[in-house]
Amino acid sequence: FSTFAGEPKWTKQVLTYRIVNYTPDLRPAEVNAAIKKALSVWSSVTPLRFVKKDRGDADIKISFAARGHNDFIPFDGPGGSLAHAYAPGKDFGGDAHFDEDETWTQSTKGTNLFYVAAHEFGHSLGLSHSKHPDALMYPVYRKFDPSVLLHQDDITGIQYLYGPSPNANNDQRESTEIKDPTESKDPELPNSCSSNLTFDAATTFRGEIMFFKDKHIWRKHPAVRTAELDLISSFWPLLPPGVDAAYEIPEKDEMVVFKGNEFWVVKGDTILPGYPQKVYTLGFSQDVIKIDAAFHNGNEGKTYFFIADKFWSYDKRSQSMDRKPLLIRDAFPGINGKIDAVFQHESFLYFFCGGKQIEFDLDKKRVTRFLKTNFWFPC
Amino acid sequence: FPADPRATKEEGTQLVQKYLENYYGFKKDGESSVWKINSPMTQKLKEMQEFFGLEVTGKLDPGTLELVQKPRCGFPDVGG
């Protein structure tokens, strides 16, 4: 890692940031989410905290501009220079500029805003470029693994400037973002560490695990300790709060979400046209008006729908749904009663029943562990 | 992205020279912007090749050409 000449750094731990303008490539909520996530990459390993400002001055001002934009480093059209940011300091110190001529995305297509922003905020906090090809602070844009964004070289560098993050288990540190006291109070956020935590639904989604709760989702990557809380509407404005069930079909990059007798099919951040549709179109009998939980087993090509103490399964190969539901406990010994949520991770299923989480080995067809519902969160 | 096979040597030189100006503090002035063994431009090219872990040849080899065409951060690599 390297720092700037004179090792400029912020002398305070709580920094403000403001998104001065937005790129038309993404919805404002998506830009907000990407910037917030990029900042949390650094706050997760340092004592630093970030307060979002909607107006006025801020330590880190974030803007999108093309070509010349009132500083000495004009952008150069598509490709080439994607963004730049300034070392900590007054006025434009810490500011991050993004080239509006790039196509900013949330995916691997175009230029991923989260990834570039995380790099630029490294500069905003005092890191210069690293020679290590796997470091986030390596200057060239490359394929990246969102689950292991920070390389040890980056962590060593930023902790050289700011020290390590205090004890992560401290409950007060629910999220790495601190709300500005002068701004209007948000309604109470769900507490991922509460002992009586329950979920509306759970599913895998593009390598992450999503836990649905009222109008929020927790996004958790199995390889990353922290989880991120977002509004469902920040990704899918047309999805309702309080969903009942969700499952992913990874091979189609689709997620199916249920609420009441309707379901939506989501691809990335888009709900496919023609949805919601009624659940009976999937082949259920007319008396099925709600799905409790569901998961898709990619190996079998079967999708399982849990309703009360029974389940239906849809076989992709025969394109057919079971004629009659079966008892859950017959196919999943040890799993009894109504299921709130279920998802598959590797060769295990994780059933959420009331205040309990039950790990079920799909190969051995038996329960292997009883876990707390907040097992996936750093509590 | 694979390097652009149409880049002629002159184009390559201009591309790399611009890169060295933007990110390695190379100052373009007459004599200094020619590929002579110890010219300032060659020295800067070596500095860039060393930074990126490329083979330090001081020449416009394919690896170097490919790298300078990759999208990247607009901040300099040295003397930022």
Tell me what you see in this structure.
The complex is a heterodimer of chains A (379) and B (80). Chain A is an alpha+beta fold. Helix content of chain A is 12%, strand content 31%. Chain A contains five helices and 25 strands. Chain A has helices at residues 28-43, 113-124, 152-162, 232-235, 328-331, and strands at residues 14-19, 49-53, 60-65, 81-85, 96-99, 104-105, 111-112, 201-205, 208-213, 216-220, 227-231, 245-249, 254-259, 262-267, 270-271, 277-278, 293-297, 302-307, 310-315, 320-321, 326-327, 341-345, 348-353, 356-361, 366-372. In chain A, strand 14 (262-267) and strand 15 (270-271) form a beta hairpin. The longest helix of chain A has 16 residues, at 28-43. Chain A is elongated, with a radius of gyration of 23 Å. The two termini of chain A are 31 Å apart. Mean pLDDT of chain A is 88; it is low at 168-177 and 179-186. Chain B is mostly helical. Chain B is globular, with a radius of gyration of 12 Å. The model of chain B is unreliable at 1-7 (pLDDT under 50). Helix content of chain B is 44%, strand content 2%. Chain B is built from three helices and one strand; from the N terminus they run αααβ. Chain B has helices spanning 9-24, 40-51, 62-68; one strand at 72-73. The A-B interface holds A 4-5, 73, 75-76, 79-85, 87, 97, 99, 102, 111, 116, 119-120, 123, 128-129, 131, 133, 139-142 and B 22-23, 51-53, 67, 69-77, 79-80.
Uncertain ranges of chain A: 168-177, 179-186
- Seen as an oligomer or otherwise, the chain set is heterodimer
Enumerate how many helices of chain A there are, as a single number. Answer: 5
SSE pattern of chain B: HHHE
Strand content of chain A: 25-35%
